[in-house]
Specification:
Elements: H1 2-71
Length: 72
């Protein structure tokens, strides 16, 4: 009976360790993906703001060009 308990105990411990490892890995992956999503959302918002500013600056430069052409 003791010859069976030791291998079963080792197998049980190894199985528990592998299971805990997988669970930890998936939790870490989920947290990393959450941070990645937040970063991409921030980047998209920043890019929209920059596009708006670029459109505004383009309009201003066009207006300045028209003024300079009308003067010159």
């Amino acid at each position: 009976m003791k010859e069976v308990l030791l291998p079963l105990g080792i197998i049980l411990i190894l199985t528990a360790g592998v299971t805990v490892g997988f669970i930890s890995c998936f939790r870490l992956h989920r947290a990393a993906m959450s941070e990645y999503r937040e970063a991409t959302e921030r980047t998209a918002r920043n890019q929209e703001q920059l596009n708006t500013q670029l459109t505004d600056l383009t309009a201003r430069v066009t207006a300045i060009e028209q003024i300079l052409r009308s003067v010159g």
